[in-house]
Amino acid sequence: MDVLFLFRIREHHEEMLEKEFPGVHFLFDRKTDDPAIETSEIIVTYGVDIDENVLDRAKNLKWIMVASAGVEQMPLGRIAEMDIPVTNVRGIHKTPMAETMLAHILAYKKKLRDVYDQQERSEWKQKIRGTELLDSKALILGPGAIGGEVGRLLQAFGVRTFGCNRSGRPAEYMDEMVSFDGLLEALPEMDTVISVLPSTPETKGLLGRDHFAAMKDTALFLNFGRGDLYEEKVLIEALENGRPAAAVLDVFETEPLPADNPLWKMENVTVSPHISSHSGKYIDRSLEIFMPNLRAYLEGKADQMENRVDPERGY
Question: Which residue has the higher pLDDT, 10 or 312?
């Protein structure tokens, strides 16, 4: 049985897989034009290189393992028609992303940009006035694995956490919950608003002018989910109007962010080039999900594989 990797992993990872699964033929660091596409039973990919042409050629394909959480760039409708199981690595981003978000929140609250700017000018001034996280409120759009982890960290700082999902159902490390329908009413109370929502038909364009206008003029907005949560021009207009006060953005409508995009030059915006999930442990964590699933697959228990993706929902 052929298992085709469409990206590079380290040599010790290759050796580990070959040792753990001696009956499996692994093909590492291949491209979509490789003839092995036609014979491979399993394809391991980041998702962006799987299109309908690849699916047409993959005559023996039985399972797609996506080493990413997002699958919105894949032809999910066609995959559903072919009835090919898809799994992803949902949850492995929670530690690096939550730590990054917390770092940005603390940097904003403690005015660290001002501290760094003063150092550049060799200025000794003690008029910088930061604020505390204690007793503040944070709204987390998408309180799943990543949202729950940032909620846990914020609670340790004495922040009251509010989760927001489609139904308002309870979520771990959230003190209170609101549904998408109750979002507009909840926003005026929030000191920090964080989105880690995936891209789905329900989340595209979820935030509009009314939502940003409802935010505090001291609120920090962070988007670490997907760039189609709002129209970028609407966010820019909102930031120019002072609601929210500032934004930290890791995702954008167009990536890479064009050099002429106004967000680069806005003093109340931090542009992060979609790097919040980067970690030296990324592949290790991906394989920790892939290997048990591969064992289940080989044992004829594909229905028990973790992190199955619903192609119709997109997650």
Answer: 10
pLDDT class of 315 with cuts at 50, 70, 90: confident
Buried b (16+ CB within 10 A) or exposed e, 271-305: bbebebbebeebbebbbebbeebbeebeeeeeeeb
Q: Which of 25, 57, 209, 274 is catalytic?
A: 274
The tens digit of pLDDT for each residue in 208-224 reads: 999 999 999 999 999 99
166 is catalytic: no
Catalytic-labelled residue, pool 30, 90, 226, 285: 226
How far apart CA 6 and CA 42 sit, in angstroms, is 11
Q: How far apart are CA 311 and CA 66, in angstroms?
A: 13
Distance between CA 195 and CA 16 in Å, rounded? Answer: 36
Q: Are 39 and 60 in contact (CB under 8 A)?
A: yes
Evaluate if residue 314 carries a pLDDT over 90: no
Domains of the chain: 2-91+280-304 (3.40.50.720), 94-271 (3.40.50.720)
Q: Using CA atoms, how far apart are residues 52 and 64, in angstroms rounded to an integer?
A: 13
Cis before 262? omega within 30: no
H/E element, 160: strand 160-165
285 is catalytic: no
For the purposes of burial, counting CB atoms within 10 Å of the CB of 234, is it exposed (0-12), middle (13-18) or buried (19 or more)? middle
Classified as helix, coil or strand, 220 is strand
